[in-house]
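Hello forum,

I keep getting stuck at the same step: I have a sequence, I want structure tokens, and every attempt I make locally crashes halfway through. Rather than fight my setup again tonight, could one of you with a working pipeline run this one for me? It's a single chain of 371 residues.
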Amino acid sequence: MKVMQLLPALNSGGVERGTLDLARALVAAGHDSIVVSNGGRMVEQLELEGSRHVSAPIHRKSLLSLRQVRPLRQLILAEQPDILHVRSRIPAWLTYFAWKKLDLRQRPRLVSTAHGLYSINRYSAIMASSEQVIAISRCVRDYLTANYSRHLQRPPEVIYRGVDTAEFSPGLTPPAGWRESVESEFPALRDKRWLLLPGRLTRWKGQEDFLRLLADLERDDLHGVVLGGAEPNKQHYEQELRQQAEELGLQERVSFVGQRSDIRYWYSASALVYNLSKRPEPFGRTVIEAAAIGTPVVGYDIGGPAESLEACFPQGLVPDGDIQALKNKTLELLDSDARPVLQEEFTLKAQAERTMALYERLLAERSGRNV
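Reply #2:
Ran it on my machine without issues. Output:
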């Protein structure tokens, strides 16, 4: 197969990482992988792993972007891909306009992945308008079905995001001197059991609930770790959290460690990992990463993260927003030997295999399809 993935850019983020993961798997399986984007720092890695990158300004939320429809159609005609796979709204619109005027009998099959719970409007409906939609969780599938049923050509297929089990695996051991280095940077972590909340600093990620939990626990052997950075225009929220921690008397019982590139070692060194998002998220990557390593995870029973917990560690589920239940569950698991088990459907291998199988089914339908 020749597969062309299209997205705004290749800088950072879950969509970008998913694109590279699939591209790598396509190349490993002997397929031809092309990615179209406005470029970015991940292009080098993409090309080193055997895919081709085509630069095109398909990222701008502007009517001027419609100028890219004709060049995109020409690119598709030149490359003759079997599959067009769109992952974001602007590229999806441009690709749809380019694809729609191609010969019905010869044009590629059009696939989209819905990575989020998009706002309900005509602009977002494009993500439900492909020949086959992939939903990254049941939560996303149900949202699409409830809000975009008239755009769907067939039911969305759930293919969970996958974790790289070569990178996140049970018994992962930090490199020599890693813990000593961390404790030197954050001395309050020394000789404590760590409770870890990973995630960017934003109001709905649950950091405030986490601080309330730490205050309620009142145990000197535990130390909270808030891992994640604030977005450039939201630095004030980190200051609010630090002020809240001070007001709760947590100065010596919580550390804000910022954004880290070594998160897997923080998972492995922690007693418990938390996902406390206060609104439904489409997926919970931190849940499956911690589960893959074998660290118990505690999370609210809401959205995509709850699906991952339900499958890999149902013992960690607590009612949404219930701080008392959160405290009880924390104390229970701190004294338990229960450990999560990553289910096969949450691995990168399964994600890639199911996506390629979907492509192959669509191509098998080519001769008798009804668009």
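The mean pLDDT is 94. If your local run keeps crashing, start a new thread with the error log.
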